[in-house]
Amino acid sequence: MCGRTACTLAPDEVSRACSYRSRGGQRRQPRWRDGDADKYRPSYNKSPQSTSPVLLSQRHFDKDAPVDECVLASMRWGLVPAWFKEDDPRKMQYSTSNCRSENILEKKSYKSPLNKGQRCVILADGFYEWRREEKSKQPFFIYFPQTPSGSSQEKTEDQDDLATSAQSKETSERACSAEGGAFDSTEEGEAPCEWTGWRLLTMAGLFDCWTPPGGGEALYTYSVITVNASPNLQSIHDRMPAVLDGEEEVRRWLDFGEVKSPDALKLLQTKNSLTFHPVSSLVNNSRNNSAECLQPVDPGSKKEPKPTASSKRMMSWLTSSAPTKRKESDCCESEQQQQKGKSKTPLKSTGALQLWLQGANKKPKTN
User: Where does the record place the region Disordered (predicted)?
Assistant: First the structure.
């Protein structure tokens, strides 16, 4: 299953990170749906009922949009069917945060969105999963292997030249800035340069749009589709998200006009393309929202664990990112606290990952 994720990129970075090539071969940068960038809040510890960035076809909102045009939207985790009759989605009596791939056509909540082509891609740095142990559960952070080339193939440690990677990233950022802004698309939506940062995990999902029976604002929600765990993850859990590995799989999953449901379902396969590392039990409580949730730990020792090539790549890239391009410190405030209307409290500094996200000595943005 998938019950907790992390997505720490700022809205403009999410847009750059999921750039894609159009049918004409032009690299495009998806725009956020009107107002949705403000609804999304980066977080180290996202749980069901929180809001996450989702990639989908623009045709769901504009029937005249090009068939291959994508858009970003903020959606709530936990699908609320359009036919749900209660006045409050919290009154649902069953969980829809995950949808088993083998049961999609058997469940009304998922069969209807699938038949309507309401397929989406949930974006995240990675997801958390817990391995049952004798007296407790050990959490792990699971994500695409990160390499300087952006490939999903993991490199060996002696090949993982972190200094070269950081230098390449700085060069890329300077080049982007010279073209008119490292995190802005052109007016036509063309991406100014390819994203060389963190490779986001792309998970297949279904979404629906629910409107209160008495009228009101429409609520967009989604469910993460799951499959049997890959061989390297079976020791942690028997299920995993249905991962779409590469632009072509993402394109086919989203193109509900050209790729009909039977063919789209064939994309939902177990893939042995993810890596992982153990993390602190701090992540067990969804109220904890700090860089410590992601940092590797050694479950059997108090000493710092020897980092893997991918975890070193992760920390290197996060550390090397320009702090002046990060959101201010309240961008990662606990979403649950926001929903309950609690006052904002600054997050305690916990290392390179948080500094990367928040930015050092950054003044708040002004509109």
Answer: 20-52, 147-190, 285-367
| Weakest-pLDDT range from 51-55, 79-83, 91-95, 316-320 | 316-320
Exposed, middle or buried by CB within 10 Å (0-12, 13-18, 19+), for 8? buried
Tokens of 155: 């490199």
Contacts of 10 (CB under 8 A, 6+ apart): 42, 183, 325, 326, 327, 331, 357
18 classed as catalytic: no
Catalogue all structural domains in the chain, each as residue range(s) with its CATH number: 4-147+196-294 (3.90.1680.10)
The one catalytic residue in 13, 129, 173, 292 is 129
pLDDT tens per residue across span 149-172: 444 443 333 333 333 333 333 434
Question: How high is the pLDDT of residue 316?
Answer: 60
| Residue 129 is among the residues annotated as catalytic for this protein | yes
**Phi, psi angles (nearest 5°) of residue 130:** -115, 135
Per-residue pLDDT tens for 225-234? 999 999 999 9
Average pLDDT over residues 311-329: 48
How far is 277 from 295, CA to CA, in rounded Å?
9
| Segments in 240-329 forming alpha helices (H) | 247-254, 261-265, 309-320
The H or E element that residue 45 is part of is: strand 43-46
Q: What angle do CA 27, 30, 34 make, to 5 degrees?
A: 155
